[in-house]
Amino acid sequence: MYLPLHDPLFWARYTFAHEGEAGSGRLGDLAAQLDDDFGDLDDGDADFGSIEVEFTIGAGCRLMLDFCLELDHHELGILVPGLTEPDQLGWDDLARWHPHALRWSELESLCRAVDGERHPGAALALLCRFTAIFEDDDVEAATAAVEAAYRSLRPAGWTGYWPTAADWLARADLRGQSVTWYTNGAGHWWARQTGDNDVDFCSIRQGSDRFPHEALRTALRAATR
Protein backbone atom coordinates (compact mmCIF):
# COMPACT_ATOMS: atom_id res chain seq x y z
CA MET A 1 0.00 0.00 0.00
CA TYR A 2 1.23 3.49 -0.88
CA LEU A 3 2.57 5.41 2.12
CA PRO A 4 2.04 9.18 1.63
CA LEU A 5 5.10 10.39 3.52
CA HIS A 6 5.13 13.72 1.69
CA ASP A 7 1.47 14.53 2.35
CA PRO A 8 0.65 17.00 5.17
CA LEU A 9 -2.79 15.42 5.54
CA PHE A 10 -1.13 12.12 6.37
CA TRP A 11 1.04 13.69 9.06
CA ALA A 12 -1.86 15.63 10.56
CA ARG A 13 -3.70 12.34 11.03
CA TYR A 14 -0.70 10.27 12.05
CA THR A 15 0.40 12.70 14.79
CA PHE A 16 -3.21 13.35 15.95
CA ALA A 17 -2.90 17.07 15.14
CA HIS A 18 -6.41 16.76 13.70
CA GLU A 19 -7.63 15.95 17.23
CA GLY A 20 -6.22 19.07 18.82
CA GLU A 21 -2.81 17.70 19.83
CA ALA A 22 0.48 19.53 19.25
CA GLY A 23 0.58 21.33 15.91
CA SER A 24 -3.20 21.62 15.50
CA GLY A 25 -3.05 25.41 15.61
CA ARG A 26 -1.12 25.42 12.33
CA LEU A 27 -3.53 23.24 10.31
CA GLY A 28 -5.30 26.16 8.66
CA ASP A 29 -7.27 25.07 5.58
CA LEU A 30 -6.13 21.48 6.06
CA ALA A 31 -8.66 21.07 8.86
CA ALA A 32 -11.56 21.16 6.39
CA GLN A 33 -9.78 18.75 4.05
CA LEU A 34 -9.28 16.32 6.91
CA ASP A 35 -13.03 16.34 7.56
CA ASP A 36 -13.70 15.69 3.88
CA ASP A 37 -11.13 12.92 3.50
CA PHE A 38 -12.03 11.09 6.71
CA GLY A 39 -15.76 11.30 7.29
CA ASP A 40 -17.76 9.19 9.71
CA LEU A 41 -17.21 5.50 9.18
CA ASP A 42 -20.08 3.09 9.01
CA ASP A 43 -19.94 0.13 11.39
CA GLY A 44 -20.28 -2.13 8.37
CA ASP A 45 -17.08 -0.92 6.74
CA ALA A 46 -14.86 -3.94 6.22
CA ASP A 47 -11.65 -2.09 5.37
CA PHE A 48 -10.45 0.62 7.73
CA GLY A 49 -7.29 1.30 5.72
CA SER A 50 -4.79 -0.43 7.99
CA ILE A 51 -1.20 -0.05 6.76
CA GLU A 52 1.75 -2.16 7.90
CA VAL A 53 5.28 -0.83 7.47
CA GLU A 54 8.29 -3.05 8.02
CA PHE A 55 11.65 -1.66 9.16
CA THR A 56 14.57 -4.01 8.58
CA ILE A 57 17.27 -3.76 11.25
CA GLY A 58 19.44 -6.71 10.26
CA ALA A 59 20.18 -10.28 11.38
CA GLY A 60 16.52 -11.16 10.85
CA CYS A 61 15.26 -8.41 13.20
CA ARG A 62 12.46 -6.06 12.18
CA LEU A 63 10.19 -3.41 13.62
CA MET A 64 6.57 -3.61 12.47
CA LEU A 65 4.45 -0.46 12.45
CA ASP A 66 0.75 -1.18 11.96
CA PHE A 67 -1.46 1.90 11.81
CA CYS A 68 -4.95 2.88 10.78
CA LEU A 69 -5.57 6.56 10.13
CA GLU A 70 -9.35 6.24 10.12
CA LEU A 71 -9.36 4.61 13.55
CA ASP A 72 -6.54 6.75 14.97
CA HIS A 73 -4.70 3.67 16.18
CA HIS A 74 -0.98 3.01 15.67
CA GLU A 75 0.86 -0.04 17.01
CA LEU A 76 4.56 -0.91 17.08
CA GLY A 77 5.77 -4.50 17.20
CA ILE A 78 9.11 -6.27 17.01
CA LEU A 79 10.01 -9.46 15.17
CA VAL A 80 13.27 -11.33 15.79
CA PRO A 81 14.48 -14.85 14.96
CA GLY A 82 12.49 -17.38 16.95
CA LEU A 83 9.24 -15.40 16.85
CA THR A 84 6.48 -16.26 14.39
CA GLU A 85 4.43 -13.15 15.16
CA PRO A 86 5.57 -9.67 16.24
CA ASP A 87 5.69 -8.93 19.97
CA GLN A 88 3.99 -5.70 20.97
CA LEU A 89 6.22 -2.81 22.07
CA GLY A 90 3.51 -0.18 22.42
CA TRP A 91 0.58 1.55 20.79
CA ASP A 92 -0.94 5.01 20.47
CA ASP A 93 -4.60 5.95 20.10
CA LEU A 94 -7.13 8.33 21.59
CA ALA A 95 -8.42 6.02 24.30
CA ARG A 96 -5.98 3.81 26.24
CA TRP A 97 -2.59 4.69 24.77
CA HIS A 98 0.80 3.19 25.76
CA PRO A 99 3.22 4.86 23.33
CA HIS A 100 6.31 5.20 25.53
CA ALA A 101 8.00 2.04 24.30
CA LEU A 102 11.60 3.06 23.61
CA ARG A 103 14.32 5.16 25.16
CA TRP A 104 15.82 7.80 22.87
CA SER A 105 19.19 6.02 22.61
CA GLU A 106 17.40 2.83 21.57
CA LEU A 107 15.33 4.59 18.93
CA GLU A 108 18.42 6.29 17.53
CA SER A 109 20.31 2.99 17.22
CA LEU A 110 17.41 1.21 15.56
CA CYS A 111 16.68 4.02 13.11
CA ARG A 112 20.34 4.36 12.15
CA ALA A 113 20.34 0.67 11.27
CA VAL A 114 17.14 1.02 9.24
CA ASP A 115 17.86 4.23 7.32
CA GLY A 116 21.66 3.99 7.08
CA GLU A 117 23.09 7.01 5.27
CA ARG A 118 19.58 8.47 4.98
CA HIS A 119 19.32 8.84 8.77
CA PRO A 120 17.63 10.87 10.11
CA GLY A 121 14.80 10.07 7.72
CA ALA A 122 11.53 8.24 7.37
CA ALA A 123 12.12 5.68 10.12
CA LEU A 124 12.80 8.32 12.77
CA ALA A 125 9.94 10.53 11.57
CA LEU A 126 7.46 7.66 11.90
CA LEU A 127 8.81 5.95 15.01
CA CYS A 128 9.66 8.92 17.23
CA ARG A 129 6.07 8.87 18.51
CA PHE A 130 6.98 5.65 20.34
CA THR A 131 9.74 7.15 22.46
CA ALA A 132 10.01 9.69 25.27
CA ILE A 133 12.66 12.06 26.57
CA PHE A 134 14.04 11.79 30.12
CA GLU A 135 16.58 13.66 32.24
CA ASP A 136 19.62 11.78 30.95
CA ASP A 137 18.86 12.39 27.27
CA ASP A 138 20.52 15.01 25.08
CA VAL A 139 17.35 16.95 24.27
CA GLU A 140 19.06 19.35 21.86
CA ALA A 141 20.49 16.48 19.79
CA ALA A 142 17.19 14.58 19.88
CA THR A 143 15.08 17.50 18.71
CA ALA A 144 17.61 18.34 15.99
CA ALA A 145 17.43 14.76 14.70
CA VAL A 146 13.63 14.66 14.73
CA GLU A 147 13.45 18.06 13.00
CA ALA A 148 15.84 16.84 10.32
CA ALA A 149 13.80 13.67 9.84
CA TYR A 150 10.58 15.61 9.30
CA ARG A 151 12.34 18.13 7.08
CA SER A 152 13.73 15.34 4.86
CA LEU A 153 10.16 14.41 3.88
CA ARG A 154 8.69 17.89 3.51
CA PRO A 155 7.86 18.75 -0.13
CA ALA A 156 10.04 21.46 -1.64
CA GLY A 157 8.36 24.84 -1.41
CA TRP A 158 5.59 23.68 0.94
CA THR A 159 4.83 26.37 3.52
CA GLY A 160 1.69 24.99 5.14
CA TYR A 161 1.30 22.65 8.08
CA TRP A 162 4.09 20.17 8.67
CA PRO A 163 5.04 18.34 11.89
CA THR A 164 7.96 19.75 13.87
CA ALA A 165 10.30 18.56 16.59
CA ALA A 166 8.57 20.98 18.96
CA ASP A 167 5.28 19.16 18.32
CA TRP A 168 6.98 15.86 19.06
CA LEU A 169 8.66 17.11 22.22
CA ALA A 170 5.35 18.48 23.51
CA ARG A 171 4.07 14.89 23.54
CA ALA A 172 7.32 13.12 24.41
CA ASP A 173 8.88 15.22 27.17
CA LEU A 174 8.85 13.29 30.45
CA ARG A 175 11.61 15.21 32.18
CA GLY A 176 10.66 16.10 35.72
CA GLN A 177 7.85 13.54 35.77
CA SER A 178 9.32 11.19 38.44
CA VAL A 179 10.27 8.40 36.04
CA THR A 180 13.16 6.23 37.23
CA TRP A 181 14.92 3.69 35.02
CA TYR A 182 16.27 0.36 36.25
CA THR A 183 18.31 -2.40 34.66
CA ASN A 184 19.03 -6.01 35.58
CA GLY A 185 21.88 -8.40 34.98
CA ALA A 186 20.45 -9.45 31.63
CA GLY A 187 20.63 -5.86 30.36
CA HIS A 188 16.87 -5.31 30.37
CA TRP A 189 15.73 -1.75 31.06
CA TRP A 190 12.37 -0.86 32.58
CA ALA A 191 10.98 2.19 34.34
CA ARG A 192 8.55 3.22 37.04
CA GLN A 193 6.76 6.49 37.65
CA THR A 194 5.91 7.56 41.17
CA GLY A 195 3.82 10.34 42.71
CA ASP A 196 1.46 12.79 41.07
CA ASN A 197 2.75 14.24 37.81
CA ASP A 198 1.62 16.50 35.00
CA VAL A 199 2.38 13.85 32.36
CA ASP A 200 1.84 10.11 32.71
CA PHE A 201 4.45 7.57 31.67
CA CYS A 202 2.25 5.32 29.52
CA SER A 203 4.13 2.13 28.76
CA ILE A 204 3.86 -1.63 29.13
CA ARG A 205 7.54 -1.32 30.04
CA GLN A 206 6.42 -0.14 33.48
CA GLY A 207 5.76 -2.93 35.97
CA SER A 208 4.68 -5.44 33.34
CA ASP A 209 5.97 -8.74 32.01
CA ARG A 210 4.27 -8.02 28.70
CA PHE A 211 7.18 -5.99 27.34
CA PRO A 212 9.45 -8.02 24.99
CA HIS A 213 12.75 -7.16 26.70
CA GLU A 214 14.78 -9.95 25.15
CA ALA A 215 13.49 -9.30 21.63
CA LEU A 216 14.42 -5.62 21.92
CA ARG A 217 17.86 -6.52 23.27
CA THR A 218 18.38 -8.85 20.30
CA ALA A 219 17.38 -6.11 17.85
CA LEU A 220 19.64 -3.56 19.51
CA ARG A 221 22.60 -5.93 19.27
CA ALA A 222 21.86 -6.39 15.56
CA ALA A 223 21.56 -2.62 15.08
CA THR A 224 25.00 -1.89 16.53
CA ARG A 225 26.99 -4.58 14.74
UniProtKB/TrEMBL annotation:
Native source organism of the sequence: Paractinoplanes bogorensis
Lineage from the top down? Bacteria, Bacillati, Actinomycetota, Actinomycetes, Micromonosporales
Origin: domain of life: Bacteria
Q: What is this protein called?
A: Uncharacterized protein
